[in-house]
Amino acid sequence: MAGAKMGLGGGLSNLFGSDTSDLMEESLDNGTKNLPLAKIEPNPDQPRKVFDQVSLDELAESIRLHGVITPITVRKGEKDGYYQIIAGERRWRAARQAGLEDIPAMVLEAEEDEVMELALIENLQRQDLNPIEEAEGYERLMKQFGLTQEQVAKRVVKSRSAVANALRLLALPTEVRTMVSEGELSGGHARAVLAVNEADKRIEAARQMVGLSVRQSEALAKRMNKKPVEKPEQSPEVSVDYIAELEKELEGALGRKISIQQGKHSGQLTLEYYGAEDLERLSEALRNLRV
To answer: Mean of the per-residue pLDDT values for the chain?
Structure first.
């Protein structure tokens, strides 16, 4: 909980500056007050789309025992007496599940675009978003608020490379993005899928990666990128049986392994040698050979 509180503070200061006291409805008690849960509504544009029920059950049980330690953040809603959540929908859901009637909340005066940016930043600073939600959050910050990758990285206190790697996941096919969102594949698996060069093979790659480690998935991607070795075409004039018989005949005559590969217009004959002395004898014989 303490970590979430620090993340929220970073989000507030990143968006509104270091001094946020003038945005709070009440200045006493750190600007928080208890609000009826029935008078609080979620933000329909909130970045988080998936709420894991097991995790929600655990949080609800913790709230039953200890209460809501970190206040949610809200603003006044369009309906009189109602509030809209800026950050903390998961705590709000768990509090309702725990049977609470009210919840501690920090009330801010914020414009619509400020609410959206703050909600995005607060969620992106947390650790429990799935990789697709995280990537979509970064994309919305860039598109909706005209931010660069560098600016997004500063707001969510992450490196630019971390933001760039997250955004790459949005290039995944829809089916693979769903697999990542639902936890079948991790972000590491998803990046391994992106390493498959041929886009039309990525869905099949993702299906094969379910249950594999990230390292195994990366190895699978490398194998899928390897092009099959093309065997030289057999000359239509020379049958396979004839080549095989010729190899046997030469092996008997020369006392060494012979390999013949026949192409359409040319071929290759390979002779094995056994040690330095044998190589010298073979070399001398080839020097005297006249074809």
So the answer is: 80
